[in-house]
Each structure stands twice: as C-alpha cells, then as structure tokens.
Specification:
By secondary structure, the chain is an alpha/beta fold. Helices cover 42% and strands 16% of the residues. β9 (235-240) and β10 (243-244) form a beta hairpin. The longest helix has 25 residues, at 318-342.
Length: 452
C-alpha cells in the first residue's frame, strides 16, 4: 500500500502551477462529468460544461497529470477522426469498507467507482470494543496485503448497528461517535486514522444497506425507494429523487421506536415485531407443544432462535407461521403509513427474517396493499433484498465515494491530487497522531482460516 504523501507520481501536478478557486471548481466539474458518465469525449465536455476548448484541454491535462483521468482509448468515428475517450481512473486508489454487526464483522476493498472488489465475513462480538478494534485493524491489514497491486488508500468507510448523529460542518470525522454502548470512547476512528493515514466515515448499517441496494440491488435505476431492515431492531432508509435522504442530523428511519398494538398489547415495533419477540413466542410455542416442530428442537436441547422459527414456518408449521405473519402484519402497518406519506415506487425488505422465508414478505404485502390508498399501491413493488451481507459493504463504498467527490470537498484537495492533503484531513491526522498509540494485539488471520 503506497502512502499518498510519498507517492511521487501523483502527489502534485508537474509543469506550471495552477491555483485558485476558479481552477479548482472547473477541475471538479470536468472530473465529475467524466466520473458520472455524463461526458466521455472532449467535445461532450465542452458542450455539457459550456467551458471553451482551451479550458477543457487545460483541465484534462491537469487531471491526467494527477492520474484521475485517462485519454488512451478511442471512440467510434462518425465521419471523421475517431474521438479520444475520456475515462475516469477508478483504479487510482482504493477504499476499505467495514461492516460491524452485533454478531459479525465484514471487511472489503472497493475501487473509486464504488465497485466491491473483494470481501470477507466472519463472526464477531461488539461487546468488547478494544478486542473488536484490534481485530478490525488486523483484517484491514490482511485484506490490503492480499491485493496483487495495492494503490493509494483514500478512505475507510464503516457501517455500524446504530444511528450515527452527523455534524454537517465536519467533512472528515476525527472522533468515534457513540453509536453503541461503550463505543463512544473506544477510539475506533482515532486508531484507524493513526494506523492507515486515510479519511474515515461512519454511517448506520441501515443507511449503508440502503445505499448498497440503490447502487447494486433491486433499487438500481429507482428514484424513490423505501428500504426496511428487520431484525432485533427495525429501521428504514429513504431514497428520494434518486438520492438518500439524511434528515437534519442523520437520525432517519428509526421506525422501531414507533408504537404498535396487537392482541391487546401496545409496545414499540422493535419489541412487538423484532427477532427478540419472534424467539420468545417460538420458545413459548415449543414449551406448550403448540408447535410440534419447535417442541422437537426443545426436546433435543437445541436453541430456538428467530431462524429456527422462520425455518419451521417455511416447512408449514402452523404456530411458527402465525408468529412470523403477526410480525409481518405489524411491520406492514408501519410501512403502509410511510408509503401513504412518501409514495415510493419500491419497498425493499432486508434482514434474516425477511430473507429466509416468504411468509413475512407476504404478510407485509397483504397489509400495505390492503390499507394504503390505491394511488399509492397502483405501481408499488414490494420485494426482498437479494444482497445479503454485501449490501452494507457496497453501500459503505458508495458513501465514501460520494463524500470524496462532493464538489465542496473535492475542490479543496483536487489540486494536490489526494484527499489526504485536504486541510481538514491534515488536521484530523495530526490530532490522531497526537493521541496515545494503541498497538493492535491480534495478528492477521492465516489464509486457511479465512472465508471470503
């Protein structure tokens, strides 16, 4: 892995110096036109940006020197000389992506287009933050070392199982947010900044999975999507006008706190329809003998979790089917309210309960289509995610790419050729380097122990 500060080929452009806000702004505009596929020849850039030929030529020369664009390819001739294609150099750098769940860790590598190149998943426990951070550092070092050709590292993007309250004025995070108990003082962000000398972003797992579904799943091409993750906690993400909606501070989609009522009981959606309730009702059904399938597991001293209830329901066990259906109807009632307000074109259900059987999906569909306004449901599709654990990693990559190339951020580092040279990033690294170093105590796993 090369250090951007010592990379002589891409640290700064050679030739005459180019500076000023106007130059940086025009470089950003040209780069993003190419990066987003809105223009791929000089002529299209001139037409789309309204910049003159000389300015476009100058900006492309600068971007080429920085290693951000390439003009080696040729397009299709339309009566004259074939135009040179202008392409974004997505291989210029890499992004490390990490996902933390209550019982699992994931790590991967993505290019600058947000495409996931490789990933690894393993069991994990967030109850011990320091040991978990050591393991994360070891996994990052390991997965980087496996790359045949590792270019500069331009960011580390993490998804976590809890809301992340964002500071809109902070472009580069310096300290670890308190997304779970004991993690606010864990030093996760500070450790990664100090060890890998690259920007770090943290987002909620629901936001990351929403972005992953939008860019790589059922949400591709959709402009309005509601994403719902089921589990112990139930959360939602919203895509509006083709972009994720973040809200005032990032606390979007905390629908698990909403009250629902069933069988004369009122409680939060998390408590009434989450996996804890499914497990509790499954154990009750096994104890009373109401469910013969679950009672058999109990007689063999096997655990009864939400997965076992889902499997029993899928095999036709009436009691288990009723438990999953009840959860689906409660979740569907909340989704119907959201759908009637937001009018999405697509609703995607994710999480182990939604993805391991058809019963929850059917119950949600029945409720949403049954109680929502006909105009809302006329063209509405309700599907389950097919992405599994990859959704959060892919979404984390998309979040990092959008943050890196946002014009307000890009203009402050583009002339230097690396986001590590952004003034606020320099301050973040200096702050992390001043903090007490913590040497990781867990060695990278041997290849034979890895499941990728």
């Amino acid at each position: 892995m090369q250090n951007p500060k010592t990379n002589a080929n891409h640290e700064r452009p050679r030739g005459r110096p180019r500076g000023g806000d106007l130059v940086a702004a025009s470089l950003c505009e040209v780069l993003n036109l190419v990066r987003l596929g809105q223009a791929d020849t000089r002529q299209e850039i001139e037409r789309t940006s309204a910049f003159g030929r000389a300015i476009v030529a100058d900006r492309l020369a600068t971007l080429g020197e920085l290693g951000l664009i390439d003009e080696a390819g040729t397009g299709v001739a339309t009566g004259g000389r074939a135009p040179r294609l202008v392409q974004f150099c997505k291989e210029r750098a890499r992004i490390v992506v990490i996902t933390l769940n209550q019982s699992a860790l994931g790590v991967g590598i993505a290019d600058l287009s947000g495409r996931l190149l490789t990933e690894h998943h393993e069991p994990g426990d967030l109850a011990e933050p320091r040991a978990c951070i050591d393991r994360i550092s070891a996994l990052v070092r390991w997965i980087v070392s496996r790359q045949a050709k590792m270019t500069d590292l331009w960011g580390i993007s993490i998804s976590v199982p809890g809301p992340v309250i964002a500071n809109p004025a902070e472009r580069f995070i310096r300290t670890t947010p308190d997304f779970l108990h004991d993690w606010g003082n864990s030093g996760l962000v500070e450790t990664l900044l100090r060890e890998f000398q690259a920007p770090v972003w943290i987002s909620s797992s629901v936001e990351a999975m929403t972005m992953g579904e939008l860019h790589g799943g059922a949400g591709q091409g959709e402009t309005s999507m509601l994403f719902v993750k089921t589990g112990k906690r139930i959360g939602a993400g919203l895509v509006a006008v083709g972009r994720p909606y973040h809200g005032a501070s990032g606390a979007v989609g905390l629908i698990g706190q909403l009250p629902v009522t069933a069988d004369g009981q009122t409680g939060s959606l998390d408590r009434m329809a989450g996996t804890d309730m499914i497990e509790a009702q499954g154990r009750d059904a096994a104890t009373t003998g109401e469910s013969s399938a679950l009672a058999e597991l109990l007689s063999r001293n096997l655990p009864i979790t939400a997965n076992e209830v889902c499997q029993a329901a899928q095999m036709g066990d009436p009691a288990s089917t009723a438990i999953i259906s009840r959860s689906g109807h409660l979740i569907g009632g909340v989704i119907a309210t959201l759908a009637s307000m937001l009018n999405p074109s697509l609703i995607v259900l994710a999480g182990s309960v939604a993805q391991t059987n058809d019963i929850l999906l059917a119950a949600v569909r029945e409720t949403v289509y049954g109680v929502s306004h006909p105009l809302v449901t006329r063209d509405l599709r309700i599907v389950r995610s097919q992405m599994g654990a990859s959704a959060a990693l892919l979404g984390a990559a998309s979040i990092a790419v959008e943050a890196l190339f946002a014009p307000s951020v890009l203009r402050d580092w583009i002339l230097s050729g690396s986001p590590v040279h952004h003034p606020e990033m320099v301050e973040s690294l200096a702050s992390a380097n001043r903090s007490e170093p913590k040497v990781p105590s867990v060695a990278p796993p041997p290849p034979a122990a890895i499941r990728t």
